[in-house]
Design a protein that fits this description.
This protein is α+β, with helices and mostly antiparallel strands. It is 51% helix and 15% strand. It has 13 helices and ten strands. The protein is globular and about 80 Å long.
Amino acid sequence: MDFTLSAEQQALQETVRKFAQAELPEIAKEIERSANPPSHELVKRYAEMGFLGVNLPSELGGLGLTHFDAVLVLEEVAKISPSVAFPIFESCFGPTLALAHFAPDELRQRIVPRVCAGEMIVAVSMSEPNAGTALTDLTTKAEISGDAVRLNGTKRWCSGAGHADAYVVYCRMSDAPGAKGVGAVLVEADRAGLSFGKPEQHMGFRGIASADIYLDKVEVPITNIVVPAGGFGKLMEAFDLERCGNTTMSLAIAQSALDYVLAYVQERNQFGKPVIDFQAVQLQIAEMKMKVDASRLLLYRAVVNASQGLPSIADSSIAKCFANEMVRDVTGKALQLMGGYGYSTEYPIEQKLRDGWGWGIAGGTIDIQKINIAAALVGRRFNQRA
């Protein structure tokens, strides 16, 4: 098996890297300072570069490339910061993929090309106050009446809430119990009855908007149904690819932390010589490099095995779980190697540690990934309710 990037992939990676390093650092600093999400102007710029539809079909406005190519693009931008990369994450690995794969053709054609063109931001709204990990306990109700769907309920931890133009809302669409009654509906942000709670203040993820969403008799046309009741399995298939986006974010943060601290330990002198000359430092750097590379290979396996389809739950959960633990370890080691400078907000490592920690919570916790892995090994799902 050849792990060398093709000439086309190397050119893509280098193009994105040059763009990110030239245009995004100051934007990322301002986002970190203000906590404001990336502007619509920046999203349009991404669209002009083709970043918003790397792995989306060309007939829907995308580039028609592979998930692997999308990983290469996302990693280079996320090395600057996950916040500036979040629009790419959402379009290439988030709810837009669910729309492209499973929504009726009319809805796909109406929404996906606008996302690829930078004209629309779509977020996903899954969790609720009493339905996080136990997602099939959700109670947000979608009732079909004639040609309309009426939604009532409260959603929580919605990344993009108050900033996105539309939301793929997971909801209960029938009286069938558990997953059998769950589907999803697209709700535009300007619909009457849709409102938002106060913006969440997180340890990291500054610039990734998050808030509760309140749906009070919100009506949308029946053509906004993404998947009907019973479609929960399809939604989770798309979520397997979201895990690969999460993995890429973790990998990018860790790689950028390693790059930064590797330069630091070669420039920083103590006892009359560079810090890298001390064996204890060499061991730490080597461990960081091994874990970053191992994480990258697990991610590559997941997306290459998926090709143009969707990754397996096992491959994506293994990649995400390892990367989520790895980024916490690597950024922690980087901070320790830099000492007081690492802990200072004048240097980027403390932000990388804060941002890195969150990806092991977002998109399914580390322990949930381990449960997924064990379930795949024995060939059955475990009942967490017993």
